[in-house]
Amino acid sequence: MRVKARNDRKNFMPKKVALILVNYKDYAKKYSADCLASLRKQDYTGEIKIFIVDNETSEESYNYLKQVAPEAEIIRNKNNDGFAKGNNDAMKIALERGFEYIILFNFDTVVAADCVKKMVEMAEGGNSIGAVQAPSASSGRAYIGAVQARLMLYDKDNPVLTPPYPAGGVINSLGNVTHFLGFGYAGGYGEKYAPPCRAEEICYPSGAAVLFKAEVLKKIGLFDEEFWMYNEDQDLGWRVWLSGASCVLAPDAVVYHKYEFSRSIKKYYFMDRNRVVAILKNYRLATLILILPALILMEIGLIFFSFKNGWFYEKMKVYSYFLNLNNWRRIIAERKKIQSSRTVGDRRIVKMFSGKIWYQEIGGGARLKVANIIFNIYWELIRSLIWW
């Protein structure tokens, strides 16, 4: 659904904004110069504070961060606690100190000068058409809980950091999409950007450039640290929707992403495991029953796909995870908490879900095209049955 921004700014008071970055080993050395320089040029008039989490910290990495980002507060983690916990560690501090908006940026991003301002304006004054409820009694407007910037692939020869932003750049994400079996992918990835791009409700925001309202995080919690990396943004975005708030794209807030697809085998374990955990936690039981035949068929296909593509061992590790009773106890406990507090039914949310898998870098050829036809037909049929 489209989102219409309000132009009445007379009652707007600048909010305190926390900007959070997570470093791992030499990640900051590769990317910090461009990223930090762009954050220092933000034209937002409210208070901004940068927090940097140094995962698997060392004296070398800590001293480097102090040198290149003297204005930032650095949080040191002895171990590599993953993307989820790394961000959570900073978000907890920001929430305790009364920051009203929390924005996560990847270190491998370059942020346009008016990006923070545009994200805050969307969150503060946006009118989410069709949102389920408007829990903000003071404004009476439908409620936005999370805002993603327009993520563009970085072009080192043409990183336009001030408006007007040109057409023709390559999109990284216009909001992420959830497949009904839990796969997540970047909407619009690889396409040429052609304005005007409208603000729209999205399944979930990419963790590479996302704003969360503090009051929403206090209500629904932070990233699920069990996810470690991948799909944690999908899970949190899903919970934003379940709370009655919405996730939206702010197309005028531009971030350039030096994105490189990782072909690490370890990636497939987390992606495959976490998408199953997400659907087990967030769907109604009746919806899980409806998708079960497709889920079983997909698992059979993934076994053959993983064997052919060299990550069969990782797939078996996923099954091993779900054979552990302690993991099921945790999933059930999380599910009970989410389901008991949700205010929105599945029918409202699954309207945005897809029946097609679109992992652009992985491909899949003719088999994936056939699978997409089958699963999309199945999804269109059962989605019409979801009235709860």
Task: Please provide a brief summary of the model.
The protein is an alpha/beta fold and 388 residues long.
Give a verbal description of the structure.
The chain is α/β, with parallel strands linked by helices. The chain folds into two domains: 15-257, Spore Coat Polysaccharide Biosynthesis Protein SpsA, Chain A (Alpha-Beta Complex); 265-383, no CATH class. It is 42% helix and 18% strand. The strands form three sheets. Strands 2, 3, 4, 5, 6, 8, 9, 12 and 13 form a nine-stranded mixed β-sheet that branches. Strands 1-7 form a two-stranded antiparallel sheet. Strands 10-11 form a two-stranded antiparallel ribbon. The radius of gyration is 20 Å and the shape is globular. Mean pLDDT is 89; it is low at 5-10 and 127-141.
SSE topology sketch:
Layout: E1 3-5, E2 17-24, H1 27-40, E3 48-55, H2 59-68, E4 73-76, H3 82-96, E5 101-105, E6 109-111, H4 115-125, E7 126-128, E8 144-153, E9 171-173, E10 176-178, E11 184-186, E12 209-213, H5 214-220, H6 232-242, E13 246-257, H7 265-282, H8 285-308, H9 312-322, H10 325-341, H11 346-350, H12 365-383
